[in-house]
Write a structure and sequence with these properties.
The complex is a heterodimer. By secondary structure, chain A is of the alpha+beta class. Chain A contains three helices and seven strands; from the N terminus they run H-E-E-H-E-E-E-H-E-E. Chain A has helices at about 1-15, 65-70, 110-115, and strands spanning about 35-40, 55-65, 75-80, 85-95, 95-105, 125-135, 140. The longest helix of chain A is centred in the N-terminal third of the chain and has 14 residues, at about 1-15. Chain A starts with a helix and ends in a 5-residue tail after the last strand. In chain B, the strands form three sheets. In chain B, strands 1, 2, 5, 6, 10, 12, 13, 14, 16 and 18 form a ten-stranded mixed β-sheet that branches. In chain B, strands 4-3-7-8-17 form a five-stranded antiparallel β-sheet, with no helix packed on it. The radius of gyration of chain B is 28 Å and the shape is extended. Helices cover about 15% and strands about 40% of the residues of chain B. Chain B has two domains: about 35-145, Sandwich (Immunoglobulin-like); about 155-325. The longest helix of chain B is centred in the N-terminal third of the chain and has 19 residues, at about 1-20. The chains are: A alpha+beta, B mainly beta. The interface between A and B is medium-sized, with 19 and 17 residues.
């Protein structure tokens, strides 16, 4: 009888005991240095009318400290991109940066030109923007290629 | 008198007993040799080789005393043939013929009198093949079977205009390839091309870095391996000596090469490398009946013309560990 009397108390204690992962909540990777944050790039390959999906490829994903160094192609970080990976996660010191993503088209004939790739086959399309990395937080970047 | 006789009989009996009991073990007895056969079919080639030798006994360090050529070969002629067991077209037999090819990449065994045979035929992927070897010297017919694995596709790295690979001690590269057979072993490698010379004359040279073997156990899957940046630079430092005086080097690019071995090769290699396996030092796996060795498939794939980024070139040219190798930074000329 006494066992059943204390059962609710035991259950409450069991379900409210400390969570060993509680301290890690919020700090996604305890190994990164202080004042660092994450940049998560969703390198999405757009759908182009008339171009098959396998005809569009990721070429580059690079980062610069300033907009003028971005235009001069002076990057401090270049990610190894793949057609088989869309999400790229990086660690940077907190601050302001610029990203640049490049795609190309490998279809034959006029397919790439008609799809909007300058020069046709292996013509490149660029996308870039500024982003801010905040200490301990994740900044999400999505490529658009609307230009 | 009777007492004396019984004492003599007792002493003789004891002597016989002591002499009859020998506890010496002959640890290095001659033993019988066993046939050793290697045959790796390549579906991308039209000539396939079969190597037959016999096992020999080592009484000292094998690397210090290579065996004499006679201890490896059979004097009798061989009679070997390959049987294609195609479910659609039925059986077809291809006969091996003697081959005097002696070139090879490495090894310390003698090249003369090699028991080497060759057969000319087109191997079909996804088809079962059997090899049969007969020699009057052999105690029984040697038989082995294998299912030929199909080719595979390298996904990363793949050449794309403008795409570059950045390798730094803390930045590696994900290597990917896709296959559609269950068990296989892969030997990936990177062949790095560079120019060496001065402003007037340069020679293209190559250095190859072998990566650890990869084993796959799943069907129709992408195999992901990792080219570690730190190991990449360590490998280059180990393989390359200092450039000749007055000469510089310029990085060109790299080819990624993968050699796939079939299920039998995977089992053999897994057995050799498994540290928990008490027989790891013994090449015990064989798919031959009547011989040791392996009958399997090997398939090669290469991704050519991959480029390194300016960040990689600059690191190789300027880092404390690699700058003595004499590589030019990005944009620098001889």
């Amino acid at each position: 009888m006494s066992l059943f009397k204390y059962l609710p108390l035991v259950l409450v204690l069991l379900f409210t005991q400390c969570d060993p992962f509680d301290d890690l909540a919020g700090s996604e990777d305890p190994s990164i240095p202080e004042d660092y944050g994450y940049a998560e790039v969703e390198f999405i390959l757009p759908d182009y009318k008339g171009i098959p999906k396998e005809g569009v490829h990721r070429v580059a994903l690079s980062f610069s400290y300033t907009i003028d160094s971005l235009f001069r192609s002076e990057y401090f970080e270049k990610v190894n991109v793949s057609d088989h990976k869309a999400l790229y996660r990086l660690v940077f010191p907190a601050g302001e940066y610029y990203w640049e993503a490049v795609i190309t088209c490998s279809c034959g004939g006029d397919t790439c030109l008609n799809g909007g790739f300058p020069g046709g086959k292996f013509g490149m399309k660029y996308d870039f923007d500024e982003f801010l990395v905040v200490t301990g937080e994740t900044t999400t970047i999505k490529t658009r290629f609307t230009y | 008198m009777n007492k004396l006789n019984s004492k003599i009989i007792l002493i003789i009996g004891m002597l016989i007993g002591l002499l009859a009991c020998s506890e010496d073990l002959d640890l290095v007895s001659e033993g019988n040799s066993c046939p050793v056969v290697y045959c790796l079919l390549n579906p991308n080639d039209t000539v396939h080789y079969l190597r037959i030798a016999k096992s020999f006994q080592i009484f000292s360090n094998a690397m210090d005393s290579p065996p004499v050529s006679d201890s490896l070969i059979y004097d009798e002629d061989f009679y070997a043939y390959l049987v294609e067991n195609d479910v659609n077209s039925g059986k077809e037999i291809f006969y091996f013929e003697p081959c005097d090819k002696t070139d090879r990449d490495s090894g310390f065994y003698h090249v003369e009198n090699l028991g080497l045979l060759k057969v000319k035929c087109q191997i079909k992927t996804g088809t079962e093949y059997s090899v049969y070897i007969y020699s009057p010297e052999l105690p029984k017919l040697i038989v082995g079977s294998t299912m030929v694995i199909p080719s595979f596709e390298i996904l990363d790295p793949v050449y794309m205009p403008g795409r570059e690979v950045t390798l730094l001690p803390d930045q590696g590269f994900d290597l990917r390839w896709i296959h559609n057979y269950k068990y296989a072993v892969y030997q990936p490698g990177v062949r790095i091309h560079y120019l060496e010379g001065d402003a007037d004359f340069q020679v293209q040279k190559t250095v190859r870095l072998d990566l650890p073997e990869v084993f796959s156990y799943t069907e129709a899957a992408t195999v992901v391996d990792y080219l570690n940046g730190a190991n990449f630079y360590k490998g280059i430092i180990q393989q390359l000596s200092l450039p000749p005086p007055g000469k510089k080097r310029k990085l060109i690019g790299f080819d990624f090469e993968v050699c796939a071995g079939g299920e039998e090769m995977a089992l053999l290699r897994q057995g050799e490398r498994d540290e928990n396996n008490p027989f790891s030092q013994i090449r015990s796996y064989t798919n031959f009946d009547g011989a040791q060795g392996i009958f399997s498939t090997r398939v090669f794939q290469t991704s050519h013309n991959n480029r390194f980024s300016d960040i990689t070139e600059n690191y190789l040219a300027t880092s404390a560990e690699t700058k003595q190798l004499g590589f030019l930074a990005h944009g620098e000329e001889f």
